[in-house]
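thread: overnight batch results

M.L. [08:02]
morning all. the overnight job finished for the chain we discussed friday. pasting input first so we're all looking at the same thing
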Amino acid sequence: MADAGVAHAICEALPYLAKRCEIAVWCDDGMVFSYLYKHFAQTEKLDSKGKMALSKKVAQLQPDLVVTSLSKLVSGGLEDAAINAAHLLNINSVGILDKVFYNEEALKQILTERMLPAYFIVASDLMRQ
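M.L. [08:03]
and the structure it wrote out:
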């Protein structure tokens, strides 16, 4: 996860979900990490080597679902590593598109220049359209 807005949106749900299933949270942004860690202690900050090893971590956990933000316009970051790991391991993935991307050009860049998840969560009806 790399987006502070998405982190804020899910942080309250993490302890609740953790009571019902196993959850692992990885971040590549210091601000997002400190915010999520405050609400959910099982949050790990990944450096560039950690991002490269994400497929191995996901393979060890064998999750039912991988969820990531889709906040970066460029490919090759943590978001793409998470989606790629899910794809390689035949695990469904969900990308959260923040309401920030009302800009049609930015949205087009995300949807055409990077690996995409199997499913999307959007912030509004406008984003759904």
